[in-house]
Design brief:
alpha+beta; disordered C terminus; metal-binding; single chain; globular; disulfide bond
């Protein structure tokens, strides 16, 4: 550790037993076949102990924490980029108490209302110097990455060693990505033994700190991406200068650079000069899915297929090396071939949630189950918790937005360590009874109840669950947006028309090459037969010509978090991912 006065670079060396560590639990819970994801992260930090401290040293510590997290996630093909950093030394901008649930609730509210509208980002994390009650050292909602309401978490800075907070942050971020705890019954493979730290998603941590992910975490992450979690992570962050100053060789193409393939010894890019960060010879590009053999691919070349029933495909524009930012159907739009509505690029349904909790064969229970059980306002039937942490009763119209009620499936829930089956028999007026199956799932102190119906789930015709209420999809303005597309396209999440193949954006009222102002053209110019279907799950076919050699991916390219080396993105970045409030 640095000495108290380490201006001369002096450090102290401690044995493990002398480290100031606080064992704790998560309050709640490889190489994948996707391109590298980019996560723009925003960190807010508050601690009364910061008063009178050197703010630059505090920021340096937070940057070190973020860099550790980036290093952990590289093994999952994810880069974590710190694009925003706030230190609250005098007053907290949201109520921060020793109650982790209340603190998480208040922080996520602050993020949605105050931070997100002014500083767009993918995920925010609060690093707090306040010690939480009990053994909880962090908390985060599961499968919430990219959502406005819940993409974030809270972390207690519990150790003198910044690695401690970094591991907790990586753990809570894992929950946002959809990773559950590594419990014995899951049979997770971890290449590091417990006595050497084990894996990051273990329910509780101690010394030595874990630094790797298990096989279960990798499977959970893949499953989340397949469900559409993390739709914001496919976009390249707009980087001008990283926090800490511009540097050729950090893997980010900054202002004044034509390319950046990392340090000289790690650069394998044939198009980029690693020493000068300039393009070689006649190269027109060096990075990106729309760059091949150091040249730009033609406009209309598919570069990202639609991934689910709410996603839209993207195509090269012919003017740049990167695939356009990921776009998807406007919130409230009907899902393609699925009985539901799109929200944040995902089609949430009661049926899918029942299968997640109870396994194959499970299905939603009749409406009377939701109404009877969720009107109780207790741990087994509710519409979530209020700001004071008390269970809220569901109004009849909102019953399908409370605790999920199912039928069929396995004998007991297939998720969680201590999942409890709650079966309710409801008598019917015409005789007989109906069985309702709910769950009380405890995934750890750091994960709120996953047995609640997910935001965006259909709760009636033209109705969707929002903030535990069943609301009309018209609140999103989806009908007004679709009306401007001339009946020849659909509205995307940027409120722009995605036109059919032979019609031109922005309003699909003139002949053109399809697509949108966001996605690139569907058809190759001069080739009227090159287009394919433009609806979700039906991406245009990729050319059967075998590509000679695509350009190597930008080393530091992940849509979820981006933190490179000891460099941190400044506040001005377009898509900060994590916000640390301390």
């Amino acid at each position: 550790e640095p000495s108290a006065d380490h201006s001369d670079g002096t450090h102290w060396i401690y044995t493990a037993e002398h480290l100031n560590l606080a064992p704790g639990t998560c309050g709640h819970g490889f190489n994948i076949s996707y391109p590298t994801e980019h996560a723009d992260t925003w960190i807010a930090s508050f601690s009364p102990f910061f008063q009178g401290k050197d703010m630059e040293k505090v920021k340096q510590r937070l940057a070190e924490i973020a860099n550790y997290v980036d290093k952990f996630y590289r093994a999952l093909n994810i880069r974590v980029a710190l694009v925003g950093l706030e230190v609250w030394s005098d007053i907290d901008k949201c109520p921060i108490t020793q109650d982790p649930f209340t603190t998480l609730h208040e922080f996520l509210d602050w993020r949605k209302v105050k931070l997100l509208p002014h500083k767009p980002h993918d995920n925010a994390q609060l690093i707090s110097g306040v010690y939480f009650q009990g053994t909880t050292i962090g908390m985060a909602p599961i499968m919430s990455m990219c959502t406005a309401e819940q993409s974030g978490g809270i972390v207690m800075d519990h150790s003198d060693n910044p690695l401690g907070a970094a591991v907790t942050l990586a753990h809570e971020l894992g929950h946002n990505f959809g990773m559950n705890h590594d419990t014995p019954e899951r049979g997770c493979g971890c290449r590091v033994t417990v006595d050497r730290g084990g894996c990051i998603m273990t329910p509780s941590t101690g010394y030595p700190f874990p630094t790797v992910f298990s096989s279960c975490s990798k499977k959970d992450l893949t499953a989340s991406f397949e469900k559409g979690i993390g739709m914001c992570l496919f976009n390249m962050p707009e980087v001008k200068v990283l926090y800490g100053g511009q540097k050729c060789g950090n893997g980010y193409v900054e202002e004044g650079e034509e390319c950046d393939c990392g340090e000289l010894e790690e650069c394998m890019n044939p198009c980029c000069n690693a020493t000068t960060c300039t393009l070689k010879g006649d190269a027109a590009c060096a990075h990106g899915q729309c760059c091949q053999d150091c040249q730009l691919k033609p406009a209309g070349t598919p570069c990202r297929d639609s991934s689910n029933s709410c996603d839209l495909p993207e195509f090269c524009t012919g003017s740049g090396p990167h695939c356009p930012s990921n776009v998807y159907l406007h919130d409230g739009h009907a899902c393609h071939n699925v009985d539901g509505y799109c929200y944040n690029g995902i089609c949430q349904t009661h049926e899918q949630q029942c299968i997640t909790l109870w396994g194959q064969g499970a299905k939603p229970a009749p409406g009377i189950c939701f109404e009877r059980v969720n009107s109780a306002g207790d741990p087994y039937g509710n519409c979530g918790k209020d700001s004071k942490g008390s269970f809220a009763k569901c109004e009849a119209r909102d019953a399908k937005c409370g605790k999920i009620q199912c039928q069929g499936g396995a004998n007991r829930p297939v998720i969680g360590t201590n999942a409890v089956s709650i079966e309710t028999n409801i008598p019917l007026q015409e005789g007989g009874r109906i069985l309702c199956r709910g769950t009380h799932v405890y995934l750890g102190d750091d994960m709120p109840d996953p047995g609640l119906v997910l935001t965006g789930t259909k709760c009636g015709d033209e109705m969707m669950c929002l903030n535990r209420q069943c609301q009309n999809v018209s609140v999103f303005g989806v009908h007004e947006c679709s009306a401007k597309c001339s009946g020849r396209g659909v509205c995307n999440n940027n409120k722009n028309c995605h036109c059919e193949a032979h019609w031109a954006p922005p309003f699909c009222d003139k002949v053109g090459f399809g697509g949108s102002v966001d996605s690139g053209p569907i058809r190759l110019a001069g080739n009227p037969n090159s287009c394919g279907p433009s609806t979700p799950n039906q991406p245009p076919p990729v050319s059967t010509t075998s590509p000679s050699r695509p350009a190597p991916p930008l080393p530091h390219s992940a849509n979820i978090f981006k933190v490179t080396g000891l460099h941190i993105f400044s506040y001005q970045l377009k898509n900060p991912l994590i916000d640390f409030c301390r």
